[in-house]
Amino acid sequence: VCRYCGEQGSGGFHVRPLFLVLVLVAAAAFGAATIFAARLYQAKQQQLGQMYFGRGQAALAAGQPEAAIQDFRNALYYSHDDPQYRLRLAQALAAANRTPEAQSYLLSLWQDEPSNSTVNLQLARLAAKQGESQAALRYYHGAIYGFWPDGQATERRGETRLELIHYLLTLHDLTQADAELIALTPELPRRAAAHAEVGRLFLQTGDASRALEEFQRAVRLDPRDASALWGAGQAAFQLRQYRPAQRYLDRAVRLQPRLPEAQALLATARLILALNPNQRGLSSRQRAQRIIQNFQYAQRRVNECLSRTAEQPAAAAASGAAQPAASKPAPAPKNAASGLMAKLLGKVERPPAATTPAPSPANGADLQQLAQQAAQLQRGVRTYRVERDPQLADSVMNLVARIELATAQQCGAPQGADYALLLLARQAEEP
Amino acid sequence: VNEAAPSVPGDASASGKRHKLHFWPSRHLIREEPFFLIMAIFIGILSGLAVVCFRIAYLSVRTWLLSTSLTPAPAHLLLVPALAGIVIALLAIYVFPRVRGSGVNQTKAALYIYNGHIPFRTVVGKFICSALAIGSGQSLGPEDPSLQIGAGIASLLGEKLQLSRERLRLIAPVGAAAGLAAAFNAPISAVLFVIEEVIGRWSAGVLGAVVLAAVSSVVVERSFLGSEPLFRIPPIGAVNPGELLAYAVLGVVGGIASVIFAKMITYFRLRLKNAPAWTQHFQPGVAGLLIGLIGYLGFPQVMGAGYAYMDQAMHSQYDWQMLGILAGLKILATTISFVSGTPGGMFAPTLFIGAMLGGSVGALEHHLVPHLTGPIGAYCLVGMGTLFAGFIRAPMTSVFMVLEVSGNYTIIVPVIISNAIAYVISRAIQPVPIFDELSRQSGLDLPSMEEQREQPLLRVEDAMRAPRAPLLTGEEPVKVALRELEQSTEPLLLFRLPDGIWRGLTRKKLAELADQGDAEMALKAATGHNSLPPLLHPDHPLDTALRHIYDWPLLPVVHRADPAQLQGVVSLPDILTAYRRAAGDHGRAISGTASQ
To answer: B346 vs chain A: nearest CA distance in angstroms?
Structure first.
């Protein structure tokens, strides 16, 4: 029975359409009022959030990370999901050395947006700070290949890759650093400083040829960039391209006279060019004269080395030192340039022995033998004979090379002409 | 409401008729069931709007009264909660007298006592007083009031549309689900909570309406306030099986903390209820002062709902000592706020305590066992579910709530383990759940869903026995059957036909056949439709047997795979004995727990 109309079997009741309309109108009015209130509220929330965010930014810029943290937290209270607020809070926490806390926020941001480059970069820095190199590399790559929100993707990507390369160099991972540098070069801006910087990094990874290319680009962009010229000189020197090295170093020194290392390297390059008998454009006489001169240097070097090695066991025996002579340090470099060159050349060839090994009986015998050969050869080495006898010229230069290599091993890094001859000897050794 | 009208759906369906809605003056008929579902959507929309307004209200109150900053000025900390408490007390005493409490029990009372009626004045009062309380820093949450607001809106609408009593009763839980879903931004948890804790049963009609209301309210809420989960948690990787032990420890700690929290609330609430009436004017004010003092002493985190601080805890912003202190102080502050009669919910404080406790246990475990890999945020999250399971005692809801509010599903195994342990510990120490205890303190005898769940279900196998009379075949004559039956105490003789079907004849029927001269007739010839008893299976609920026992004094219990195989029989005395035995066991179990 209908409770209102009494109809049998309906089990229903009246609902006046007017009432339903009224309910709908009331609901619509409620909805409109809620929209209005929500807009007001959201505007206020946004305003407060931005106010605290601005304060936090200012505090962070002023080097007050703790105050910034408080402000960013307040900002987050008004917009708990704003990624910008959370990122800044993480940065402030990182600046306050609260690494795990910063990492926690960054990880939640990363979870939301794994391709966000800014977040990846921050995480990479924190991981690097904590010595987690694998994670750091992963996040650096995430930053490089991710999305930069501010529209400066190329520049930021390059900067990040540069940061990664520096990090790889601190890890001594030269191969990976070189690979990253190769990837970086096409993205470099047309600025001499940028190419020079990359050139220097190539030098650090031991890739002198690419370093030279980058320095040359830098020099083309700014021919008066002494730094780039100096780098190009170094790279060319490492590649044993002594003529261009001399040219670059000469220009660098002229532009920037206060470059003692460049001056030293320039002097060595000049010496090499002056001693090299295979220099193009030499007459046969000039060539012969150079060979004889080199022979004289080598003979003097081997004799000096022999006398020094003879002194060492006697001195050791006299002092009664238990320490074996093999561990005695090599003579200190006489100037900064020799140290630099040792460092420089160490990139491409065996570094000169850091210590002067004690002449073993066999080594001593070798030196003795070399000295005897030199003495035997000395009588027949005359300019006209060397000029006419190519075989003699070769055997003389061969002996010079063997002497310089052996004495470098036995008596430490040479100086001046002997050093130049050692480099020429090593060049000749290369296939 | 016309009491004479058929209002129980079962009655209507039994008569083959359905409730219909008359549109006057056209008298166009609309079925009530689909209309109820449409109404559920409408309720969801209205509840969603109301919850959005409620949220705006309590957050704006906080901004206006306390501070725009997370760290309010000391004077504000001391004065605002206390003064707001006095205002709330006056409103609760003179304007909205039924506004006290969280809102869950009021909704249950509407369902079970007041035929779905929730006074709209109470809804308005709940909105105003709860917004003032939470906004001024009382340690209470907005979820339970939202639940009651939703239920109140639904109740108002149902009454105005003059729905049937059964629908009116159900409409309050539908609104409650909508309110809770919007407050938590978690429709599944809201549906589960209402089913698990308010309605207590699953039925297609109710579930459909509850789900529709919850979903529509969440859609409204999200369109206004965004669809992001309540918390952002750092990524949680796959959980190492060994680390589950660490979460089990959290379950134990969480279970104990839940009991402490529940015991404190029930003990002090009873004390304050029994205090002189005039003290009610000051109880919320004093509570506000004490909570403000906690904030003044350096722990403003315990004030209000505390979601911002839960987020901080999940991001490892506190060490384990601080997290432990915050958990303890929040238990204290929430107890103070709630027992003072200040309207507001306990869901958010429970989550806060759980998050802090979980973080504290997790950080301490990390400190002691450095190779643990789970982030602190994971422990906070699991801790939230743990406290919810132990304190609110809604185990299913606790699991889904954690997943929903965080949007993270990788943590499910630790959540289940920890929640289960906390739930078991809480039940073992405190048999009566907190909401049931609170309703009993208020003098309401509301049904306990947990007790209903735990009620042992008696099955036919608990009452069945072997037949006392020999089992005959259909070939036997009536006189043999009558003789066998007379020699036994069974009220009915069962016999099997060649096709394996069991039939039965009562003593009276057999005697009638013998008197009519059919004593030599085979039993199979004497059978008709009246001799086919309903077949039971051992796993049937015993209630099923009761339904047939009036017509059939002895019921055969047969094998499900082979109906010809008789497994036993049940009679009324057997059923009653089984019920009596179960009642005795249950009573002993209850008295045993109570004596502990």
So the answer is: 21
